[in-house]
Amino acid sequence: MDFPDVKQLYMYRPPNEFTTKILETMKLWASKPGAFNDPFDCDLDVAGRITEADVLHAATTEHGHRSQWPADIRRFIDSILDENGQFTQAERDRLDREIELLIDDNRNSGVICLSEVNDSILMWSHYACNHTGICIEFERTPNNALGDIEIASPVNYSSVYPHIDLGKMLVHRDGQTLDLMLRYKADCWSYEKEWRVFRDLGNAPSPLVSRITKVIFGLRTPTPYRQVIQSWCDARGIRTVQAAKVNWTFKLDIPV
To answer: What Pfam families does the record tag this protein with (predicted)?
Structure first.
């Protein structure tokens, strides 16, 4: 399992009916990237169009020199290039249409956001409504979705805005080029230590990514809401703990 030291991932939640519904239904909400609070997040830029050189490079990377290309590959390349070595109009239209469909698929995908940390004062303030909400702990093992790096992986924080390299997409035809673009954020967010899980459909409920092992109450979780969450956790056999201030320092104490 990649990142074996990361054995739990966390979701900060405000004290509302949507949070309660997670424990009622044991499902999560997978948001579309466009719903994120950062307008730069997942806003993909395409660096130019696929060129004829990109196609030839992809074929060479996979099959070697042209003399070694399988007959079907040679026929395909010859069919999409004219006598001047340029794309036929039909091929140019097809490529542009396929790229647009790929980008649309990513924009309409579902994203579940988690964090490596459960004691971030900022995230308790921002995402758990000024420490009045909860933080849900999910188990990460080699045998569940969170332990599969192709399903759940950490966000890359960067000061450089990412672009889609369409030529690279031809060489790596597994969708990873686009997926990586959805895992880039400005480095000012690095304190979140975010992980993302992708689903095919956004703005839709999704099965739990793994077993819930603990629910943490915030410093200010109201008693009535705490009682509602506690009843659901008791019914599900989920342990609950209370966050506390650490004396004389800006830290939270979260029971293990």
So the answer is: DUF2971 (PF11185)
Cα separations (Å) of 137 from 108, 111, 117, 211?
27, 18, 10, 9
Residue tagged 């104490």 (tokens): 253
231 contact partners, CB below 8 Å, separation of at least 6:
none
**Is residue 178 within 8 Å of residue 29, measured between CB atoms?**
no
Neighbours of 246 (CB within 10 A): 10
Helices 17-25 and 223-236, axial angle in degrees (round to 10): 10
* Structure confidence by residue, pLDDT tens digits, 191-231: 999 999 988 888 899 999 899 999 999 999 999 999 999 99
What is the value of pTM for the model shown? 0.80
Q: How far apart are CA 184 and CA 186, in angstroms?
A: 7
The amino acid occupying position 53 is A
* CB neighbour list of residue 153: distance below 8 Å, 6 or more residues apart: 2, 183, 195, 196
Kind of pairing between the strands at 156-158 and 184-186 = parallel
* Three-class SS of 54-81: HHHHHHHHHHCCHHHCCHHHHHHHHHHE
Q: Dihedral of CA 163/166/171/176: which sign? A: positive
The pLDDT tens digits for 116-171 are 999 999 999 999 999 999 999 999 999 999 999 988 999 989 887 766 666 666 55
